[in-house]
Amino acid sequence: MATLKIDNRTARGLWLTSHGLAQAPTGPLDTLGLIQALGFVQLDTIQVVSRAHHHILWSRNQNYRESMLDPLLRDRRQVFEHFTHDASVLPMAFLPMWQRQFDRKREQVGRSNWFGKHLDPDLIKDVLRRIRDEGPLSTQAFDTKVTGTKAMWQRPPHKMVLDYLWYSGELATSHRDGFTKFYDLAERVFPQDRPVLTDRDQITQLCETALDRLGFGTLTEIRKFWDACDAPEAKAWAEATQPLEVEVQGADGSWTKALAAADIEARISTLKDPTSRLRILNPFDPAIRDRTRLSRLFGFDYTVEMFVPAAKRQWGYYVYPLLEGNRFVGRIEAKGDRKTGCLTLTNYWVESDRLRTPKRQAKLEAELTRLAKLAGLKQLLWAPA
Asked: Is residue 288 within 8 Å of residue 321, measured between CB atoms?
């Protein structure tokens, strides 16, 4: 049987469809459904216009507003927070396959030099006792201090303990006030009647749910989707289940071997051209977080430069890619000021001069106006010459 070859145009269409970016971001809103379809939504503290998790959900349906995520966590317990490749929101339905990640993180964090020396057993007992007796607490409820020479990433001992217990699954995020996290005993947050899966079954679910959401990917990309199993474990899964092998064409015409979801041919047969609407994506959007894959599929080179010294940045501190149809056409730098109610476009670049047209500029202005509504901003200022 000949290997299925997926040309680049089809691969782009499949990718955008799998990540909820092929259709116009309109229609009835199902926030939990969006999170389930994506698998996870990355959390981030930085708020330039709107924080990453809100922006990512808004990009799929622009009826979403920032107040709509917390009730799923605080009241309905339909999502939980934990660590994939980074801190993320995940559907509570995925909790049974996540026990191994709690165990992995307990081991990784416990043996790290950064955490290890701060994990005082008596402090751990005291933190657990206080939360058990007092209910959900934030780091502000504790008063231990950093001692010795202060470094950028140092945290007070109580914060290290809270994070260790959170990584380990002994504590869970109860809710957030603003972006302040409140920790509670996991048994009071997580459903206690959830199924218990063997470690092998968890690995199988992790790999299969990842491949379903990617549509296609290398074994490394499948493993890194959740970052909750190791390379040998992913390899053993592939050898046991033998997923469909395909070849995917890159933007430069080269071909990469990959694995594909079992229904990939059905997905291809029903594929529609992506909407021509211009989209402003967040730097942490799951569709673009693997920069090597982004370049391979779309020929778009993109780097997050917020941790690059200002003098060495090519673009800027927080730069948003612009997606139009099945290609990335440019990038912008924009800032929101919630005190003045203004969203300011400070820089605008296109991938080639021929893409700088009045029609595209009008599309961008319309999308910026819609993005402003997400952040509660009322005025759009266009700063670039």
From this structure: yes
**In angstroms, what CA-CA distances link 239 with 169, 204, 255?**
30, 11, 22
User: What is the C-alpha separation between 184 and 1, in angstroms, rounded?
Assistant: 54
Q: Rounded CA gap, 193 and 190, in Å?
A: 9
Pick the CATH number of 278-382 from 2.60.40, 3.40.630, 3.90.350, 3.40.50: 3.40.630
> What residue spans define the domains of the chain?
69-188, 197-269, 278-382
Q: Rounded to whole angstroms, what are the CA distances from 199 to 100, 109, 235?
A: 7, 20, 15
Same fold, 197-269 and 278-382: no
- Compute the C-alpha angle 42/370/295, nearest 5°: 50
Do 4 and 215 contact (CB within 8 A), yes or no?
no
Write down the CATH number for the domain with range 197-269.
1.10.10
Question: C-alpha 210: how far from its chain's center?
Answer: 13
Residues composing the chain = 385
Strands (E), the chain: 4-6, 41-42, 79-83, 87-91, 171-177, 180-185, 216-217, 244-249, 255-260, 278-280, 319-324, 327-337, 342-350, 379-382
Cα–Cα nearest to 293, from 205, 222, 231 = 222
* CA within 13 Å, CB half, 232: 0
Closest C-alpha to 77, from 91, 97, 58, 98: 91
pLDDT per residue, tens digit, the chain (385 aa), is 689 999 999 999 999 999 999 999 999 999 999 999 999 999 999 999 999 999 999 999 999 999 999 999 999 999 999 999 999 999 999 999 999 999 999 999 988 776 766 688 999 999 999 999 999 999 999 987 766 566 545 678 899 999 999 999 999 999 999 899 999 999 999 999 999 999 999 999 999 999 999 999 999 999 999 999 999 999 999 999 999 999 999 999 999 999 999 999 999 999 999 999 999 999 999 999 999 999 999 999 999 999 899 999 999 999 999 999 999 999 999 999 999 999 999 999 999 999 999 999 999 999 999 999 999 999 999 987 5
Distance of CA 371 to the CA centre of its chain: 19
Cα–Cα distance for residue pair 118/155, rounded to 1 Å: 9
